[in-house]
Predict the structure.
Amino acid sequence: MHKNIKRKRYDLFRVFIIFFFLIYSIVTIVPFYFLGVRSLVPTTEAAQFHLVPPKLEGFNMDSTFGNMATYYSIDLKKAKKELGLTGYINPNATWSEISKEKNINPDKIKKYFRSYLRYNGWIALLNDKRFINSVIMTVILAVSSIVVGGLLSVMTASVLAGFRKKWHSWIYALYMLQMIISPVVIIIPVYIILGKNLGLSNSYIALFLQFIKGGAVPVMLFTAYISTIPGTLKDSVQIDGGNRLQYFLYILLPLVKVPFATFTAIMFPVIWNDLLQGLVFLKPEKYTLIPMVNSLQGTYTTNYQAIFAGLSISIIPVLILYMIFQDLFVRSSLSGAIKG
Amino acid sequence: MKRNHKMGISRDTLWDAAFLSPQIILYFSLTILPFIIAVPIIFSDQLSFIDNDVHFVGLQNFVSIFSPPLVNSFIPAIKRTAIFMVLNYATVFIFGMSLALLMYETKSKYRKPFFSIIYLPYMISGLGIGMLLSMLFSRDTGSINLLLLKLGIIKNAIDIKNPSVSTWAFPAFIGWRYAGFNMAIFLGGLLSIPPETIDASRVDGANYFQRLWHIYFPQMFASIMIATVICLIGSWGVFDEAVGMGALTANKNVRFVSILIFKLGFSGVGDAQTGTLAEAVTMSMVVNIPLLVIGILLTRFQKKKQY
């Protein structure tokens, strides 16, 4: 009887935990939901609360020509061309005046600007060559750094696994040191080495070198995995007269697919989300994505739609990758893989 | 396989070196070498990166970072970072530890979806986290602010620009970001406890808190140490989140040591008002060398305790 009550109480406790996790999950999702909504809320309505993006009231024909650039970051030259407007237009003229003067159907103007009202942040950014360039460069950097950096770390780990010699564990300890050195601590000397001495300032190579230099997590990850591979494999290659390179290329590399996926899942966000290196090494026109998002506050000042759209664009790829790889995270964490 | 080392470098060692060298050379020059080349700079009057007229000034920089005008920004930054570190460390347990303990009591089939969502904010850039905090709580346009005002829960809007608000909100939000990360560390520790130990304590009639104190915490010691070291180092190196809150521009509430060092090194090019590059490097080393020592000691201590 007593046991029964205890059991029931425990079940109730478990229900409570599930309920708590539900609430916590909702609270965690809410900021991202609001971010999406805010990327569609015009600055003029930003001071009101919107649970969903506000309804469009249609284009206001009394707004002036010049204000289109300020409020919606619209390229006026392009708009003029696409609307078939020619000649000088007074920035203070309203659109109803323009339509009368230039003899253009008001509906055409309304239709043209309709999408700009809601999606102007997204449109402005997707038409912003610098922004698009930063996305492309960040993708290239992330992919190349993961391939090269991963390969280098596998090479390192292939030697260190098993700690066959005393100095192997010293090298391992040296890599572990990276865990307690924040990037910002050494950024000034690093800039002197890469930017000044090697002349890599304003070069993506400086970032690439920093991303592939290796560190505690990749070396730990691959070393732990490779040390589980039976040594007989290595010996058999040697008996067959193969050298270490052949062992590495034909035996080891095909075997490290699983830790390589984990490595990608861990390192992609780190590289994608890097702010400091881009800020330090690159000039604003060459910024990678996150420094670019940071600079949006300067370029688009009060166009919150553009700023929040930029932030969303920086988040979406990581989220997609996270959804693909989340099994790896959960499995590796829940199996008690992190033991120190 | 064993060869006589006196005969010279063995073939095996040559292969080792060939495989290690590409990464270790990079790693050494970009992680260890910076500390070495920082040494001469600390004792010099180097103004900026382009300054070629550098002289030896002895311990001058150690004096000047603790005297006006630099001390007026250095000491507040240290205080700010120290407070942040304490609160940030609290969130490691408030978020990470509680979530891990609750997750441990959850049936494993329910773990996965919750785990994924709790871990999610860690995937987002630190800059994005800072910007989200501003987006949700800025006084006039903050979404949560406007929501709470509309629901009548608060009368006056919360102002994230207010120093006393951001002192608490900033670490809390960062705690939310790292919740999944810390939870994973602690849960890893919990799951590695042999089930027999826990069953035995149950049979002995130990209640939950007794179990927590006498079994879970001691067995999780390694995890707690790792989380402590990561939090300690991370707190003094906090950068991205602060930049997201506008630390490099106007927001003085989040001007931590790392921000100050960055500003001295990279934006104030030899500006007498802000300080020199040499002073920035000196500051960085004064703050971080003790941290490094503490970090190394803590990790060594943890390893000793393990065996």
